[in-house]
């Protein structure tokens, strides 16, 4: 088992990725479609550890940074969900070429669930794992805007401020935020159309009426679900991640 | 866009090297250390943006994860100072850099301080919300803030004071990796004598730093050296949440590098 940092070949702008390569030939390949904005940084360690644990269980796992995120090229202002779709397809193609004989799983986290779902709808990926998917973009955005306002007015964050720093229309949760991205996120609405529920695993704290249709449900314990509501970093516990990796590895994945 | 290169470090760890090779530009490589548990791209991608700005100005940088942070999966028993020096070895022997700036935000500032003391290849220190002692000026500023509060805030503060606490309170020095009280002056003077340039910034998020004069009170007369840049931004938070604050920081570091770390 090894970790291979790489620039996704032929990507333009260059996309940075980390490939976790299993020791034996992989039983399946997993493409991780990351969450966005502050959730990307907040969850980075969690999903690095999950990738590691899945790799130990015989999966090749590719994590990559969207354009304008992490170590990939581009300014943060350039990030768009529509481009993330294309970038994920590009990375899936790279992963498929490295692992032509095994199923490809798209693992989508939060808003990244929509990116992963598209790969399944377009028959690029064979299975869909959804981690705390954002099902309604408008309410997701409203929640982020409220949290952004809370952060700006927080006496913990700005103890010396006598007035609340003005909210910026071009940033959200500390990240640049364009009108186009706003429109894209507001229009996000989960649809099961074109997705065979038999190929879907849902990982969440619970199942609700709005949850995507799925054949398998893996309940996330608090340490692995609460992060989405937090902004400050803390050490990630490994034991619950191993439990989830076991549960995911126990399922069958068909091409 | 300047090109960036993946560098393989010890024990399978890696980093992203940005900027010109050592024979071009300033010849200096900045080691951007992890701010707490935040991985190498930094809070709100600060390190990536800073690396690219510095590259455009002719300075190289390496952003990478310490053991147990970000993509460095395994923790390590090796002291962090040794790990950072090993990364410097890789940059020196495989890439030709021999002058380094180290540091960063919070714990990165603490670690940078230790590395600067331990390794003569360090020619610059970045200390953002790093070491400062509470002293007279801190107490003065605290009293001044207290007097400016309205009566309701006073009642709340008194309530907090008299409420029983679960255990002995932790001080900043307990939570941080700082030298024994009083040692920092001699260490600071030692770095100045060695010709190390230093950039110090304290934000409003550093609860232990309330008054500009705490800086001189902490580090002594050597803090007035021309090799030292000092800023206090009380209206900025600890992790640079606002894009304008990040840009101001990047501008300040870029400017400092240009003035102090030329070839």
UniProtKB/TrEMBL annotation, chain A:
Q: Which residues cross the membrane?
A: none
Gene Ontology MF: a single term: hydrolase activity
Q: Which residues form the Serine aminopeptidase S33 domain?
A: 36-139
Q: What keywords appear on the UniProt entry?
A: Hydrolase
Can the keyword Hydrolase be found in this entry's annotation? Answer: yes
- What highest taxon heads this organism's lineage? Bacteria
Among InterPro entries, the record links this protein to: AB_hydrolase_fold, Hydrolase_4
Entry-linked SUPFAM superfamilies: alpha/beta-Hydrolases
**Entries under Pfam families matching the protein:** Hydrolase_4 (PF12146)
Spell out the protein name for this chain. Alpha/beta superfamily hydrolase
This protein's species is Dokdonella immobilis
UniProtKB/TrEMBL annotation, chain B:
Q: Which SUPFAM superfamilies match?
A: alpha/beta-Hydrolases (SSF53474)
Q: Which InterPro entries match?
A: AB_hydrolase_fold
Q: Which domain of life is it from?
A: Bacteria
Recorded protein name is Alpha/beta hydrolase family protein
Q: Which organism is it from?
A: Dokdonella immobilis
């Amino acid at each position: 088992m090894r970790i291979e940092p790489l620039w996704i070949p032929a990507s333009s702008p260059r996309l940075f990725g980390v490939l976790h390569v299993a020791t034996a030939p992989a039983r399946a390949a997993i493409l991780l479609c990351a969450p966005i904005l502050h959730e990307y940084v907040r969850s980075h360690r969690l999903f690095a550890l999950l990738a590691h644990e899945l790799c130990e269980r015989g999966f090749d796992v590719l994590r990559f940074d969207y354009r304008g995120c992490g170590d990939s090229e581009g300014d943060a202002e350039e990030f768009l969900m529509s481009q993330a779709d294309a970038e994920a397809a590009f990375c899936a193609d790279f992963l498929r070429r490295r692992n032509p004989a095994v199923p490809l799983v798209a693992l989508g986290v939060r808003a990244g669930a929509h990116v992963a779902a598209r790969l399944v709808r377009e028959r690029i990926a064979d299975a869909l794992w959804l981690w705390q998917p954002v099902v309604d973009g408008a309410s997701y955005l409203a929640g982020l805007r409220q949290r952004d306002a809370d952060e700006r007015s927080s006496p913990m964050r700005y103890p010396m401020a006598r007035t609340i720093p003005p909210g910026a229309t071009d940033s959200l949760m500390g990240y640049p935020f364009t009108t186009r991205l706003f429109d894209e996120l507001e229009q996000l609405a989960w649809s099961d159309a074109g997705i065979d529920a038999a190929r879907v695993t849902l990982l969440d704290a619970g199942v609700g009426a709005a949850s995507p249709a799925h054949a398998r449900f893996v309940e996330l314990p608090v340490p692995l679900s609460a992060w989405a509501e937090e902004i400050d970093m803390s050490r990630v516990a490994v034991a619950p991640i191993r439990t989830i990796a076991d549960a995911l590895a126990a399922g069958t994945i068909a091409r | 866009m300047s090109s960036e290169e993946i560098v393989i470090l010890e024990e399978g760890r890696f980093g992203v090297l940005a900027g010109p090779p050592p024979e071009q530009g300033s010849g200096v490589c900045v080691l951007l250390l992890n701010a707490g548990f935040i991985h190498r791209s930094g809070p709100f991608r600060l390190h990536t943006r800073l690396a690219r700005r510095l590259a455009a100005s002719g300075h190289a940088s390496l952003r990478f994860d310490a053991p147990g942070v970000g993509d460095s999966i395994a923790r390590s028993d090796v002291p962090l100072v040794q790990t950072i020096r090993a990364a410097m070895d890789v940059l020196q022997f495989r890439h030709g850099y021999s002058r380094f700036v180290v540091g960063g935000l919070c714990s990165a500032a603490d670690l940078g301080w230790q590395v600067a003391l331990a390794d003569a290849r360090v020619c610059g220190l970045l200390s953002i919300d790093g070491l400062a002692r509470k002293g007279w000026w801190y107490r003065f500023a605290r009293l001044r803030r207290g007097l400016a509060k309205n009566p309701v805030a006073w009642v709340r503060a008194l309530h907090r004071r008299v409420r029983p606490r679960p255990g002995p309170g932790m001080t900043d020095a307990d939570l941080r990796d700082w030298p024994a009280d009083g040692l920092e002056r001699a260490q600071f003077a030692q770095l100045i004598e060695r010709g190390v340039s230093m950039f110090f910034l304290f934000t409003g998020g550093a609860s232990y730093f309330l008054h500009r004069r705490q800086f001189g009170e902490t580090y002594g007369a050597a803090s007035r050296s021309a090799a030292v840049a000092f800023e206090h931004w009380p209206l900025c938070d600890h992790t640079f949440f606002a894009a304008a604050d990040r840009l101001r920081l990047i501008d300040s570091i870029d400017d400092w590098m240009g003035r102090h770390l030329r070839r």
